[in-house]
Every structure is written in C-alpha cells, then in structure tokens.
Amino acid sequence: LALWEAHRPTLLLVTHDVEEAAALADRAIVMQPRPGRVFADIPVPLPRPRDRLGADFAEVKRAILAALDGSLSQPPVAEPKMTRAAAGWW
Asked: Which residues pair with 83 in a beta bridge?
C-alpha cells in the first residue's frame, strides 16, 4: 500500500483471497472457470485507508463472494469455433 500511495502505478493483482481483493482493489474482476472468462466487474468505491471491520467493506466482500458463487453456478461459455478465415492471420 505504501508503494502504491507513493507512486500510484497501475497494478494488476491476481488473488484468490476475497478480503485481499476488497482491501487493495479499485475494482474486482471475477473470472468464470474453464474457460476463464470475465464473469463480473465489481467496483470497490471505498476510501483509503480501508476499514476492514466496517459495513461497507463487508458489503463489497459479499458482492465479490456472490459473483464467485454465480460464476460457478453458470454453465461455461462455449469456445468460439475457429474458422480458416479467422485463423488466417497466423
């Protein structure tokens, strides 16, 4: 957090820890498994420093967990069929 605060770089953090995502992210992207696709893009509009015991923090965690549950209960997205025309670039 101190490094981010000092320099404000754009960061991509990959985590399986919902608390970590809610504490560090400006938005949480929930992926759908097999094949990995974006399932939900959840904004995290909490001020910094974040109060991990606050109701707003708990609400963000609930939203992320609900999206994770939804991503597992939805049928996987079908892979698009690769045609010769689409594959012609390589």
From this structure: none
Alpha-carbon gap, residue 64 to 40, rounded angstroms: 9
84 or 23, greater pLDDT: 23
Distance of alpha carbon 34 from alpha carbon 79, whole angstroms: 10
| H or E stretch covering 40 | strand 37-43
Global pTM exceeds 0.85: no
Cβ atoms 70, 64 nearer than 8 A: no
> Which of 22, 33, 44 has the alpha carbon at shortest distance from 73?
33
Whether residue 32 contacts residue 38, with contact meaning beta carbons closer than 8 Å, is answered with yes
